[in-house]
């Protein structure tokens, strides 16, 4: 599931529509993962859920999206991670835990795989996105060394969420990864 309905305030424009080497950040995720897209306005993807009502942040997006998830596991991310790979997602979701989350010194709920049954229960108790990870009594944290086994360049975990990143992407070829 890709949350694609944020305000993009730090980024300065709709980050899902921002192009890196000719391809939008959201298109990169769609072609790599074929995810369910949760958005606040129609974007034209075949697997898309449009949130109704006022903006309620990413937790509202997850609440809406999980209603449409079929299967036992769901990986949740945002457009912030345009180089996330199928190998990373599948490796994390293969683990037999309620929550498998990347950990870089803080909880990363948008780089996590969840048991759908756990998520449906936790979403009712959560008051913020990080609660989806921390409420679980069964968490597996993936650190940098393990992540490097799935993605040696760690491109999957590069977070493109701010205007600083946006500016660096526009003006520094060394930061643009060509896939």
UniProtKB/TrEMBL annotation:
Biological processes annotated in GO: Mo-molybdopterin cofactor biosynthetic process
Entries under InterPro entries matching the protein: MobA-like_NTP_Trfase (IPR025877), Molybde_CF_guanTrfase (IPR013482), Nucleotide-diphossugar_trans (IPR029044)
Domain of life: Archaea
Gene3D superfamilies linked: Spore Coat Polysaccharide Biosynthesis Protein SpsA, Chain A (3.90.550.10)
CDD domains associated with the record: MobA (cd02503)
Signal peptide feature range: none
Keywords linked to the UniProt accession: Cytoplasm, GTP-binding, Magnesium, Metal-binding, Molybdenum cofactor biosynthesis, Nucleotide-binding, Nucleotidyltransferase, Transferase
Molecular function terms from GO: GTP binding; metal ion binding; nucleotidyltransferase activity
UniProt-listed Pfam families: NTP_transf_3
Classification via PANTHER family: MOLYBDENUM COFACTOR GUANYLYLTRANSFERASE
Protein name stated in the entry: Molybdenum cofactor guanylyltransferase
Organism of this sequence: Sulfuracidifex tepidarius
Source taxonomy: Archaea, Thermoproteota, Thermoprotei, Sulfolobales, Sulfolobaceae
């Amino acid at each position: 599931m890709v949350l694609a309905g944020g305000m993009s305030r730090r980024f300065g424009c709709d980050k899902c529509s921002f192009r890196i080497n000719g391809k939008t950040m959201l298109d990169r995720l769609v072609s790599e993962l074929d995810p369910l897209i949760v958005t606040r306005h129609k974007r034209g993807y075949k697997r898309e859920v449009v949130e109704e009502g006022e903006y309620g942040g990413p937790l509202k997006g997850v609440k809406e999206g999980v209603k449409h998830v079929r299967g036992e596991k769901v990986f949740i991310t945002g457009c912030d991670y345009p180089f996330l790979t199928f190998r990373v997602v599948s490796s994390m979701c293969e683990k037999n835990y309620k929550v498998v989350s990347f950990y870089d010194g803080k909880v990363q709920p948008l780089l996590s795989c969840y048991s759908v049954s756990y998520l449906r229960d936790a979403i009712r108790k959560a008051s913020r996105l990080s609660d989806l990870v921390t409420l679980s009594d069964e968490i597996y944290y993936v650190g940098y060394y393990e992540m490097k086994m799935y993605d040696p360049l760690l491109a999957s975990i590069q977070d493109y969420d701010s205007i600083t990143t946006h500016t660096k992407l526009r003006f520094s070829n060394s930061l643009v990864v060509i896939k």
